[in-house]
Amino acid sequence: TDRYAVFGNPISHSKSPAIHNAFAVETKQQLSYEAILAPNDGFAVSFRTFVANNGLGANVTAPFKEQAYALCDELSEQAQLAGAVNTLSVLSNGKVRGDNTDGLGLVTDLQRHFGSLKGLNVLLVGAGGAARGCVFPLLQAEIAKLTIVNRTKSKAETLVDMFAQYGNVASQPIEHGGQSYDVIINSTSSSISGEIPNLSRDVINVNTVCYDMMYSKQQTPFNQWALGQGAKNVADGLGMLVGQAAQSFLIWRKIKPSVEAVLTQLRAEL
Ligand code: ATR
C-alpha cells in the first residue's frame, strides 16, 4: 500500500493519522498513514529513511516545518511565501516537492463557516509562522484589506513589507481602536499561557466574525473575549486542522475528501 506519515516532535497526540485514515475510507483509497517521531536534530534523516522505505508523502508539524522547507527540491508558491512546508510529496522522478496547506485550510474553513471572504476587511493578530502562512491565501480569497497587528509591532511590519506586492496589506499598533473589522483571526500562541492579545474592543462589532486558530473543548480564551465584546460569530481552529489535511490529501491523491464527518467525530472526541 501507498505509505504516508506525519512527522513532528512531539507527535503521539497528532490527530493527522485519524483524519487521513478517515479520508482514505471515505474516498476508497488504499493507503497507510502513520505518525513518526523524529529527533529534534534529525528530521531530514528520518524523512529520507521513510522515503527509502517507500514513503510517498508526509505532513510536517512543529518543530520541523522550516527544516522541511530547507530539504525540498521544489516548492509551491505558497510554500515559498510561507517560508515553511507542511506537506511533502515524493515525485515520480524521486524529487521532493514542498507545499504549505495551512493557509488554504484556514481560508476554506472560514468560507465553510461564514461564506465568501470577498471584499471583507480582515484583521490578522500575530506575526509568527502561523500568521505568515495565511497571508497569501487570504489575499487570494479577494479580501478587500488585510491589517496585521502584533505584540512586537516590527514583526507585523516585516510581514507587510514581504506581502505588499500581493495585495492590500497594512499594519497597525496592536491596541489600535477607531475601527471594526468583518473578520478577526487570532494566530498568536497567547492562549497557551492563558492570555489574550491586547486588542481594543473597538475592533469588534456585532457582525464581526472571530476565528481562533487554536482549538479546545471549551470556548478558547480569545473567542470568549470576542463573545464578551458582543461578537455573535466565533469559530475555533479544529476545522482548519481538518481543512489543511484535506488539501494535503488532494495534493497526494488528486481527490478531495469531505471534512464534515471527520470534523464532527473529532469535535466529539475533544
Ligand atoms: P507560530 O508558528 O505558532 O506562529 P511563533 O512564530 O512563535 O509561533 O509566533 C507566536 C506569535 O504569537 C507571535 O506573533 C507572538 O507575538 P510576538 O511576536 O510579540 O512574540 C504571539 N504571542 C505569543 N504570546 C502572546 C501574548 N501573550 N500576547 C500577544 N501575542 C502573543
Model description:
The protein is of the alpha/beta class. The protein has 2 domains: 2-100 and 241-269, Rossmann fold; 103-236, Rossmann fold (3-Layer(aba) Sandwich). It contains 10 helices and 12 strands. The strands form 2 sheets. It has a 6-stranded mixed sheet, sandwiched between helices. Helix 5 (102-114) crosses helix 9. The structure holds 2'-monophosphoadenosine-5'-diphosphate. Residues 126-131, 150-152, 155, 187-190, 193, 195, 197 line the site of 2'-monophosphoadenosine-5'-diphosphate. InterPro entries: Aminoacid_DH-like_N_sf, NAD(P)-bd_dom_sf, SDH_C, Shikimate_DH, Shikimate_DH-bd_N, Shikimate_DH_fam, Shikm_DH/Glu-tRNA_Rdtase. One of its GO terms (molecular function) is shikimate 3-dehydrogenase (NADP+) activity. Its EC number is 1.1.1.25. NADP(+) binds at residues 77, 126-130, 150-155, 213, 237.
What does the largest sheet look like? Answer: 6 strands, mixed
Beta strands, count: 12
The shape, in one word, is globular
Question: Widest sheet: strand order?
Answer: 2-1-3-5-6-4
Number of helices: 10
What is the fold-level CATH name, i.e. the topology of the largest domain? Rossmann fold
Number of domains: 2
**Estimated share of beta-strand residues:** 15-25%
Calculate the terminal CA-CA distance, rounded to whole Å: 30 Å
Helix/strand/pairing category = alpha/beta
Order of helices and strands: EHEHEHEHEEHEHEHEEEHEHH
CATH architecture of the largest domain: 3-Layer(aba) Sandwich
The ligands found in this model are: 2'-monophosphoadenosine-5'-diphosphate
The helix content, as a percent range, equals 25-40%
> Mean pLDDT, as a whole number?
97
Provide the CATH superfamily of the largest domain.
Answer: NAD(P)-binding Rossmann-like Domain
Radius of gyration: 18 Å
The top-level CATH class of the largest domain is Alpha Beta
